[in-house]
């Protein structure tokens, strides 16, 4: 336990989700569920899809936690960073009419980064920029199964978030700090649907376009002089599909496809410079012994934003994991992923390798049949 | 557990390489500005030296310093006084011959100067109003100096005079402990016929300094102590926007030492709180120095610099409430032993203000 605590402390002290996070709105955070992360993270198959609650029998609560260790290389430089943070809570409650009430909190964008400028002569200004923050979503939705084969869902999403960038300057022994704070606010809807045919499940969700308001404050050189500015960021729709097939010979296959047509994204009615991108994943779950599945997945895709040089940020990942039954409680899913990112920059490629460990603990309400004893 | 310490070192200490730095869309603009004074001037002033750490007595071809002492003498049993001795304790070993005279005008420790007896009264004669007769003469020696005062002038000294003034009669300077030193401060001892003695400790003391033959031009920029020379400088900072961060603002110049009586010269920069153009030498300034420095002028090209980053930052950030009226460079404190340095008006050795600045960082959405 001491070792785990120390590791958590180290990772918590250093925050950097990606060295590409200064771009755009940062890294897209996918719905967090260790079971599906181990299968390549097909978003449409996760609890983040309000239409994906066909089989819900009892109240279920899932809490996910992710720890990230990251190394990145640019030229001959290499850095290692890490972070531990909760990634999502999903709760689903079945109502008497078979309607499901959905409540969740998850992350949409991550803006953590930590970069240093090159250390040159003593007279040069050296920068250290530390950013922490992101955009999170508070979700309230309903899901309605139909004929045991269809499920439709809708979710209201209140996006709220903020980031704090501390710009530290060093020059000839002098230290100064400017701070940029950005608050985010938006409301949007997510529509989801699932159809099941024999052993085949087809599911998907659609994120409506929405307007994100970003309010920026600047705190300059420690004196109370704030510069306030508002940005209106228009983000187009996102479409996610998922296909699950099985089980065949104790094996289940899951695939996912995400389409993010964000070329038309704007910031204050000016093109944001984002791109149309997709992300695809495939995963396999093999369960030799009941309750102890082995999962393996692969995903590939690109970031919606580009590097400063206009280069693409490509990402591929290998996913793996397993799950455990927790008697009288629920399940514990464990997933690991190794993510390889690469992006062309003015100073050459940045190659980033991130290792993530996800834990999702799921509580499932137990219903016991009461035995009636006559005479009491 | 044994791996965690090196792992922590790896993650914390060795982890400042510039990976991903170029992903920042645009870096804050930074630059260096070297400004020459937009306006400058110099003035001299007799400043009160009553709060100096010592009393300076002496003279040479350029400066003269006199010492004023005040004792709470009592007008009783003067007839039985057989002798009066003034006891002084020099700090320096330089022998300085001096004469003691009775002061004829009241003066105050905190305000007395070569020209003023106190803040509202001018001496009738610059350098102090004194009776012409001598109370006694002596030469300062290393340990202590005892001056036998003229017994016949005792009544006048007690009843009519306002203390004793020590006037140097030979060249050389020596410092004397002042009344703040309870053991070695100046004291006056009355010896009585019955063998008793009465000791009076100084209740007021000061030294006053004047220049004798300084050949300075009106256009000279001088900084000096004892007889104060102050240089006014003003730099225009209009080119810097209010949101700029001043990383370093350094005022530097290479003064030429004209005269000094100590190894280390201490200078200070004060912010003017009133317009020098309007108030001239009477323009107010902040008593607390914005920056100080001490240097030993071992060579003529010793550069002196002041870090006035905070001052410049305030001038730039709050141009309406923190007005830039300019700077005053003074000796700090001005009761140091006499010195005088000269600043160039132009060239490499002239005062200049080097500012290293950085503009605010852009946010991730700025274009």
How do you describe this structure in short?
The complex is a heterodimer of chains A (376) and B (367). Chain A has 376 residues and is mainly β.
Report on this structure.
The complex is a heterodimer of chains A (376) and B (367). In chain A, strands 2-3-4-6-7-8-9-12-13-16-17-18-19-20 form a 14-stranded antiparallel β-barrel. Chain A has one domain: Outer membrane protein transport protein (OMPP1/FadL/TodX) (Porin, Beta Barrel), CATH 2.40.160. The radius of gyration of chain A is 22 Å and the shape is globular. The longest helix of chain A has 12 residues. Chain A contains two helices and 20 strands. In chain A, a hairpin with a 2-residue loop joins β8 and β9. Helix content of chain A is 4%, strand content 64%. The N and C termini of chain A lie far apart (48 Å). Chain A is mainly beta and 376 residues long. Chain B has 367 residues and is mainly β. Chain B has two domains: 170 residues, Jelly Rolls (Sandwich), CATH 2.60.120; 157 residues, Jelly Rolls (Sandwich), CATH 2.60.120. In chain B, 8% of the residues lie in helices and 40% in strands. In chain B, the strands form five sheets. In chain B, strands 3, 4, 6, 7, 9, 10 and 13 form a seven-stranded antiparallel β-sheet that branches. In chain B, a hairpin with a 3-residue loop joins β3 and β4. The radius of gyration of chain B is 28 Å and the shape is elongated. Chain B starts with a helix and ends in a 9-residue tail after the last strand. About 2% of the residues of chain B have low confidence. Chains A and B meet through α1, β2, β3, β5 and β6 of A and α1, β16 and α4 of B.
């Amino acid at each position: 336990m001491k070792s785990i605590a120390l590791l958590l402390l180290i990772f918590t002290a250093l925050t950097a989700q990606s060295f590409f996070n200064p771009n755009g709105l940062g890294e897209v955070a996918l719905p967090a569920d260790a079971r599906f992360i181990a299968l390549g993270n097909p978003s449409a198959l996760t609890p983040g899809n309000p239409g994906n609650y066909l089989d819900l029998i009892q109240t279920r609560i899932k809490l996910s936690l992710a720890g990230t260790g990251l190394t990145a290389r640019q030229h001959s430089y290499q850095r290692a960073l890490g972070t531990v943070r909760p990634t999502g809570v999903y709760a689903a409650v079945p109502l008497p009419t078979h309607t499901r009430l959905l409540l969740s909190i998850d992350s949409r964008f991550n803006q953590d980064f930590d970069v240093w400028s090159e250390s040159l002569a003593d007279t040069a200004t050296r920068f250290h920029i530390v950013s922490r923050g992101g955009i999170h979503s508070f979700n309230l939705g309903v899901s309605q199964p139909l004929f045991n084969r269809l499920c439709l869902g809708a979710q209201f999403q209140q996006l709220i978030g903020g980031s704090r960038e501390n710009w530290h300057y060093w020059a000839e022994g002098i230290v100064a700090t400017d701070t940029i704070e950005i608050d985010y606010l938006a409301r949007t809807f997510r529509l989801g649907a699932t159809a099941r045919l024999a052993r085949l499940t087809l599911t998907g969700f659609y994120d409506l376009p929405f307007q994100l308001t970003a309010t920026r404050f600047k705190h300059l050189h420690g004196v109370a002089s704030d510069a306030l500015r508002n940005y209106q960021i228009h983000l187009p729709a996102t479409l996610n599909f998922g296909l699950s097939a099985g089980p065949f010979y104790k094996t289940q296959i899951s695939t996912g496809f995400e389409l993010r047509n964000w070329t038309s994204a704007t910031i204050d009615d000016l093109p944001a410079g984002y791109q149309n991108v997709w992300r695809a994943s495939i995963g396999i779950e093999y369960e030799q012994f009941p309750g102890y599945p082995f999962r393996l997945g692969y995903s590939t895709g690109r970031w919606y934003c580009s590097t400063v040089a206009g280069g693409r940020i490509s990402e591929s990942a290998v996913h793996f994991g397993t799950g455990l039954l927790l008697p009288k409680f629920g399940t514990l899913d464990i997933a690991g992923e190794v993510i390889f990112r690469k992006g062309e920059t003015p100073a050459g490629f940045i190659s980033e390798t991130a290792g993530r460990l996800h834990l999702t603990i799921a509580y499932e309400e137990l219903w016991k049949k009461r035995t009636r004893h006559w005479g009491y | 557990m044994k791996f965690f310490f090196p792992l922590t070192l790896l993650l914390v200490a060795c982890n400042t390489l510039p990976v991903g730095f170029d992903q920042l869309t645009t870096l804050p603009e930074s630059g260096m500005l070297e400004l020459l004074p937009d306006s400058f001037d110099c003035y001299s002033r007799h400043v009160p030296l009553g709060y100096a750490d010592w009393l300076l007595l002496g003279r040479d071809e350029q400066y003269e310093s006199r010492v004023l002492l005040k004792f709470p003498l009592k007008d009783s049993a003067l007839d039985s006084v057989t002798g009066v001795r003034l006891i002084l304790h020099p700090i320096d070993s330089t022998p300085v011959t001096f004469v003691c005279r009775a002061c004829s005008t009241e003066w105050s420790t905190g305000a007395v100067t070569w020209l003023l007896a106190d803040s509202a009264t001018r001496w009738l004669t610059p350098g102090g109003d004194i009776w012409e007769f001598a109370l006694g003469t002596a030469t300062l020696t290393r340990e202590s100096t005892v001056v036998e005062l003229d017994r016949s002038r005792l009544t006048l000294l007690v009843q009519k005079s306002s203390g004793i003034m020590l006037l140097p009669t030979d060249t050389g300077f020596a410092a004397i402990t002042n009344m703040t030193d309870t053991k070695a401060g100046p004291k006056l001892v009355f010896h009585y016929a019955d063998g008793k003695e009465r000791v009076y400790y100084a209740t007021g003391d000061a030294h006053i300094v004047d220049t004798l033959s300084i050949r300075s031009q009106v256009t000279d920029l001088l900084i000096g102590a004892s007889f104060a020379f102050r240089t006014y400088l003003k730099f225009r900072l209009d080119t810097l926007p209010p949101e700029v961060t001043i990383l370093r603002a350094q005022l530097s110049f290479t003064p030429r030492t004209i005269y000094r009586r100590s190894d280390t010269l201490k200078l200070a920069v004060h912010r003017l709180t009133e317009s020098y153009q309007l108030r001239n030498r009477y323009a107010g300034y902040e008593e607390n120095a914005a920056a100080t420095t001490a240097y030993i002028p071992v060579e003529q090209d010793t550069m002196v610099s002041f870090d006035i980053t905070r001052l410049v930052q305030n001038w730039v950030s709050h141009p309406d409430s923190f007005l830039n009226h300019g700077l005053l460079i003074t000796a700090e404190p001005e009761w140091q032993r006499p010195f005088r340095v000269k600043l160039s008006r132009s060239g490499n050795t002239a005062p200049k203000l080097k500012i290293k600045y950085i503009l605010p960082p852009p946010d991730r959405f700025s274009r």
